[in-house]
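ok so i was messing around last nite and threw this chain in just to see what happens. nothing serious, just curious
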Amino acid sequence: MFILTKPKKLIINKSKIAIITPSWGGAAKFLHRYKIGKQQLIKEFGFKIVEMPNSLKSEEYIYKNPQARAEDINEAFSRRDIDGIFTTIGGEDSIRVLPYLNKKIIKNNPKVFLGYSDITTLHLFLYSLGMVSFYGPSVMSSFAENGGIPSYLKKYFVKTVCNNSYPYEIKSNSNGYMINNFSWDDKNKQNTKINRLNPSKNTNKLLNGKGVREGNLIGGCVETLEGLKGTEFWPTKDKWQNAILFLETSEDTPNIDIFERYLRNYAIQGILKNLNGIILGRHIGSIKEQIAYENSLLRVAIDEFGLNDLIIISNMDFGHTRPIFTIPYGIKARLNAKNRSLEILENAVV
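result:
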């Protein structure tokens, strides 16, 4: 039996958080956006913020120095005074830090580790060490949201990393998801509250299946996951058995044909047939694009590989959408097809 090590929960108005930049050096380029995220984190949660030595270095420096990025991660895990580790933003090359990470230090010092998108790489790394991590907000794209941290994001962030009470159901965001993503280049737009789509269009969507199924949550950003296939960090076959796969696409909007090739690889590996369910995140682009991804998933899973009983729920509020809930990586959850719901069945922190 695969038993995961769970970190200590974060404590409002007390915990100390290390800020790291394991991928793209966007914090230096959009420093005003980073500072807003930092300020809103302090205001909403009272966390004490510690910027690691390289977290605000230039884009060029971050790109050229993956070892320095890894050293920040190693140090953040090793320090006894640090309770959690949050990422500034995603990117595209966090995989380059993997050779420099100290597995012994990290495994012996479990902490709340938070991020999404390209940070999928590090979630799989931690999962390979038998550690729970958290697929959720980053400082710049979530905690720095225009008009303050969304109540929906805050609710499930606190439930997941600051509370060991369970089970709890993750509901759809009733206030509607955010659109009109203003460019971070325009500092004056930071205080402009962005629009929300009609809440009536914001419900979880059952694509296939019936009944109730349970399994451990594994997944991430589909493009980033591709880079880990065939490596030592890709979950072994037994980890996929009865799992719930969560997938989401980035703002790069991968081509539908490429997306289907990704999915066929999951099928040929034997992953899809062993799953107890799939949840698909809401795409950041148009509803038309979202439907195209849904149709592709159904085409591969149902039409091509005959997985007619697989529960598939789409339009979920995680990943590259706004606002988002936090997913506890590797934790047991339940999918209910009738209610189109996701329920977390065990504590992710202690």
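not much to say yet. The chain is about 30% helix and 20% strand.
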